[in-house]
């Protein structure tokens, strides 16, 4: 239901049950949202409280929670968003904006990569693996300055085993681009190094 408390606040309570048979997904999503006008200019802001939610897939059940999510015209603030299933977890904390003073960090623990591999599947690649580590992005709503330290284990491509990977990235302040390095986590040998230029949206990689 929607109730007007005053000219500055609207409350919305939503409970949604869904069952997507095509993608084998089902669950119940519950959230409470507040639309406010804040500051001297009365800028609109939406504060979302995601109530404990469960998403069901054929392989596992996911529990999703968040302390708070706030959205306005300039930034998105996320406090302790969690998606967890048994020993797997994905967490988000921080602020996404156009400013490099704000950062959003993603933490992964034994997280199955297959949900992120939709494009690879469309090209005929079945990619599996588990990721551990963290990635932080500054100015997420602008150029995106990414720093990451991720390890990928138990990786297969079309059922063929692939060496465990250690992926590192950092922001090159002088050149204004993201440096990327991919190493064999078992031997330490370098596989690929290169960079991504967010201004031109161009990739450069050199394989070893």
Order of secondary-structure elements: EEEEEEEEEEHEEEEEEE
The fraction of residues assigned to DSSP E strands is over 45%
Q: Identify the overall geometry.
A: flat
Question: What's the number of extended β-strand segments?
Answer: 17
**Which strands sit side by side, in order, in the main sheet?**
3-4-7-8-6-5
Helix content: under 10%
Average pLDDT value?
85
Q: Number of DSSP helices?
A: 1
Rounded Rg: 20 Å
Q: What are the segments in which pLDDT stays under 50 over at least 5 consecutive residues?
A: 1-8
Please give the largest β-sheet.
6 strands, antiparallel, barrel
Protein model, in words:
The protein is mostly beta strands. Helix content is 2%, strand content 68%. Strands 3-4-7-8-6-5 form a six-stranded antiparallel beta barrel. The model is unreliable at 1-8 (pLDDT under 50).
Characteristic terms for this protein:
single chain; 208 residues; mainly beta; 6-stranded antiparallel barrel; 1 helix; flat; disordered N terminus
């Amino acid at each position: 239901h929607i109730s007007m408390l005053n000219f500055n606040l609207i409350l919305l309570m939503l409970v949604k049950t869904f069952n997507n048979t095509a993608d084998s997904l089902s669950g119940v999503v519950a959230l409470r949202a507040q639309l406010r006008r804040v500051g001297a200019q009365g800028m609109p802001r939406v504060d979302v409280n995601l109530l404990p939610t469960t998403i069901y897939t054929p392989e596992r059940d996911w529990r999703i929670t968040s302390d708070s999510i706030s959205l306005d015209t300039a930034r998105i603030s996320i406090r302790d968003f969690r998606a967890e299933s048994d020993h797997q977890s994905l967490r988000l904390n921080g602020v996404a904006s156009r400013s490099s003073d704000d950062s959003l960090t993603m933490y992964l623990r034994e997280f199955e990569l297959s949900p992120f591999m939709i494009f690879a599947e469309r090209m005929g690649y079945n990619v599996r693996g588990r990721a551990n580590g963290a990635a932080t992005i500054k100015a997420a709503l602008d150029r995106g300055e990414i720093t990451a330290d991720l390890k990928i284990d138990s990786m297969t491509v079309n059922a063929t085993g692939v060496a465990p990977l250690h992926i590192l990235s950092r922001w090159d302040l002088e050149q204004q681009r993201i440096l990327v390095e991919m190493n064999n986590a078992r031997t330490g040998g370098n596989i690929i190094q290169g960079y991504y230029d967010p201004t031109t949206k161009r990739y450069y990689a050199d394989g070893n």
